[in-house]
């Protein structure tokens, strides 16, 4: 995956005003076929004399957002928790549709409305606060209906209308409560080698999908065969896990629950693949909201300490049925420092007092689980390369985790800053050290930074 721009959220140790959003960078890919022939640049043109600096910046930022391609995506470029939801919420005003393409309720996206009210979303796309935006849950998502209805009810109770604004793919797989139980049993089996999942049942549900005995949203329209399919799923789990106690009463109760859910979900069900196709044909704009992040990708992440789906660019096509040629700009989101939850190698991790300081300053606790995120300070020790123990450079990120654990990190040391930057809205007003940090990252990755987050609220964003 290549990017042509990104954005950075920058306030590590000095302030605790981020809520759950740490510093993030937003990268932005441009596909050059069938599209306009320009690339984003981090240099600003001279502002017309008739406009103030603030007006000029606002005009430029709006122009940049409107120049995004018809189908754009916001993806995590690290291990998740980078602040994707905030950026999607900001951009959603300029898109007709915001769509989730993969993952499930293991994605926790925290957003704030214009009054500063906090919303923690797990399945509902982060465009829901924008009244004109249609939100789509695509075929690649696994859907826990009790959780989805709880989210919808919570939004409605807080004045956010969901009626006619959420579509759920008839091809999406259903995640049942027993999947969550199995997730916990599986983690217990692994003992010291546990994956560190959210225990939301995501992996077991995707397992059901891939061994082809899963149940899809469309199956809710056929309650005559639904009990047999659910019985097969539950019996399979009971045969695999001795700790899973499957009884006829469990089946009866779940069938009755899902009869009610089926009726309640019916107004939301749609062939979202067709919706995507028709929307593209009608020149409607689509923003895809990724869950998790590239380093948790089932193929490209730190396997097996990964999620069960494809949070990288390919998941857009498989999880929504959008043709690759239609996908244009990709905005990758990264923090100014790196965090992850769960297990797995983390070469630049800072343990002890330094990690604790950053974790509490940045409120680095998972939206979905509340678990402390594992942090590295980038305090301005900037990891720029991996090397073998003998000093030989590593040319690409290794698939072998044993090798990854043994690698040495090459750092560049940059000056830090101690001032509170949460109220800054113009790039030129950032401390010199902060600007040097941003610009050094641009040099290293070959991609310009376009958006710099300095807090969790909608307005806490610098357009560069």
Write the layout of secondary structure elements.
Elements: E1 6-9, E2 25-29, H1 53-66, E3 71-76, H2 84-92, E4 97-100, E5 109-112, E6 118-121, E7 134-137, E8 142-143, H3 145-157, E9 166-169, E10 173-174, H4 177-190, H5 202-210, H6 226-240, H7 248-265, E11 269-270, H8 272-281, E12 286-289, H9 314-320, E13 330-335, E14 339-340, H10 353-361, E15 374-375, E16 381-387, H11 401-406, E17 408-413, H12 432-445, E18 449-453, E19 461-463
Parallel strand pairs: 1-13, 1-18, 3-12, 3-13, 4-7, 4-12, 7-9, 8-10, 9-11
Antiparallel strand pairs: 2-13, 5-6, 14-15, 16-17, 18-19
Helix pairs in contact: 4-5
Provide an overview of this structure.
The chain has helices at 53-66, 84-92, 145-157, 177-190, 202-210, 226-240, 248-265, 272-281, 314-320, 353-361, 401-406, 432-445, and strands at residues 6-9, 25-29, 71-76, 97-100, 109-112, 118-121, 134-137, 142-143, 166-169, 173-174, 269-270, 286-289, 330-335, 339-340, 374-375, 381-387, 408-413, 449-453, 461-463. It is an alpha/beta fold and 464 residues long. A hairpin with a 7-residue loop joins β18 and β19 (461-463). α4 (177-190) crosses α5 (202-210).
